[in-house]
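Cross-check.
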Amino acid sequence: MDVRRLSEAVSVAPQIRPAEVADLAALGFRAIICNRPDSEGADQPGFKEIVRAAAEAGLEVACLPVVSGKVTDADAVAFGRLLDRLPKPVLAYCRTGTRSATLWSLAEAARGRALPDIVATAKAVGYDMTGVARRIANGGRTPTTTGEVRHEVVVIGGGAAGIAVAASLKARSPELDIAIIDPADIHYYQPGWTMVGGGVFAARTTARTMASLIPPGVAWIKAAVAAFEPANNAVILDGCRVVTYSRLVVAPGLKLDWGGIEGLPETLGRNGVTSNYRYDLAPYTWELVRGLQRGTVVFTQPPMPIKCAGAPQKAMYLAADHWRRSGVLGDIRIDFCNAGNVLFGVKDYVPALMEYVRRYGIHLDFQERLTRIDGPARTAWFTRTGPDGATEQVERRFDMLHVVPPQTAPDFLRASPLADAAGWLDVDQATLRHKRFPGVYGLGDACNAPNAKTAAAARKQAPIVAHNLLRDMGAVQGGDALYNGYGSCPLTVERGRIVLAEFGYGGKLLPSFPPWLIDGRQPSRLAWLLKERMLPWVYWKAMLRGREWMAQPELAA
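Predicted model, tokenized:
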């Protein structure tokens, strides 16, 4: 039997045989729903045979026959009512299980479950529900009108990558019809949150209204994306509104999975638990750092990929430097619990970082992943993986805990046809075109290109996507623009000094400045001034306005 569980209460399966019903009872099922009309196939047992076998096994049974490819709204309502009435767990079956999975999806939508969650759950057990995505988005009902809006170019995401690419497109083609889809009211300069947590920036300087940043002439659709229909050049929004396009740019950023660590959501911002990965918590980091005189501090880093891979240790170095300057560092133990096995992924920068690890007396704990927190008890548990792959639980007490949550692509992307097997946007790493769907492009943190997920990467990617998109439309000449994987991570090792890591694919060093000016492998005061004074200005005044200083794309011959 090929039983596929959709929830604790409902599983689906291809056609079952009467002889298998007793096995279903042994597995704990208490009811069966048949969604296949009799005589649909020559090798199909009749429903009455299933009824007899179910009676012998003590299972309840119901029949809701649905014609293949014709699941109606009434069918979905009736299926939901059967689920309400029958004892759980229930097994529903048809020829392949697809009709049963479709009925479950529409019934779940009627109960208010989110489209991405429904689609992802069905996809995980082998059923593609994107064909009924509009109905799921419409609460399990067939839309009476599409409410369709069309734009020549649609950009998903109003973060750094989305606004930058829209601005780069407008700079090249001022008459181009572009819309940005994003539900947020506020846009954040997230690279600044490390400095907020270190007492350098005020949080308010990292936030501006989204309306003030949307490029002139670009439409703003203030809504959340529910699903993609790339075969129809369509994006489905919450509430089943549909936006169609000629070209699509996908730049939704990452999902921070705070719930992926047991106990974390309940204690964030309290009990000494903080994170510079959230706007409202970065000031709490500085509050904790200033107030700590002695004790144990734990900084964590989850498995890759994450946005700005150096950010977890940036927070640690700035805190340690403050304690050193305050004369209390000797009374504070600092643990860096890193789920990876190296301090930093590009080896050229590790020697300089290790000098600061030794200076601050930091204890490095590799292959340790944070799994659970008890905030009131000031205790965290980590899963440590040994060289042989065996795991053990490590308990750590803390007075302050800086957490970096696990990170994934957004749910609506992971469950879509645009995603690769791991859930990331599937793009060519050089041109940033989608590998399978013409007219779709991607940039920013949700792509599967093996580059660092930083704002600096998005600054370089935006002109590349803009050029290639317009080239495909015949609006500009020349070869493809090619992305070399450039990313930058200004590692704040102390207040006033930064190790300016700049690198591309394969860890190749890609410095922007000559070594006599800034040697990125050594801590630099000039790099600190760049981070503190220049980069915020470049972000707000250049990157988000289509000014591509030091970011002009390189074209293939």
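The chain has three domains: 4-113+121-126, 150-254+409-555, 258-408. The chain has 15 helices and 28 strands. Passed to J.P. for a second look.
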